[in-house]
Amino acid sequence: MKRLTVTEKLAQNKYELDDGHPHIVVHNEVCEAECKIRACLFVCPAEVYSEQNGKIVADWAGCLECGTCTVACPPQALHWEYPRGGFGIIYRYG
Ligand code: SF4
């Protein structure tokens, strides 16, 4: 039996998109006032965050719900909550 790589395992996951109800909201006014390092661009394993025209944008549909960004970002720069019941990531391999 072939062993799957981490990337192959992650590709097996499913995501139920809660369209119109983002579970991540970026408060760019806080980013601009308090954050010089933009850690979210580097710590997220799913590369959810990007910088577009100087603003941080979250493509929340790919979130793995690991919570790393909530630790890395300054207080109140992110509003993050788990997706509503039945939505979000569905792991196939734990
Ligand atoms: Fe990325 Fe994890 Fe934050 Fe989701 S919870 S945006 S996967 S760092």
UniProtKB/TrEMBL annotation:
| Family listed | To ferredoxins from P.putida and C.tartarivorum, ferredoxin I from A.vinelandii, ferredoxin II from D.desulfuricans.
Q: What is this protein called?
A: Ferredoxin-like protein
User: What is the stated purpose of this protein?
Assistant: Could be a 3Fe-4S cluster-containing protein.
Q: Which GO terms describe its molecular function?
A: iron ion binding; iron-sulfur cluster binding
The lineage, from the top, is: Bacteria, Bacillati, Chloroflexota, Anaerolineae, Anaerolineales
Give the organism the record lists: Bellilinea caldifistulae
The keyword Transport is assigned to this record = yes
UniProt keywords (A-Z) are:
Electron transport, Iron, Iron-sulfur, Metal-binding, Nitrogen fixation, Transport
Annotated 4Fe-4S ferredoxin-type domain residues? 54-83
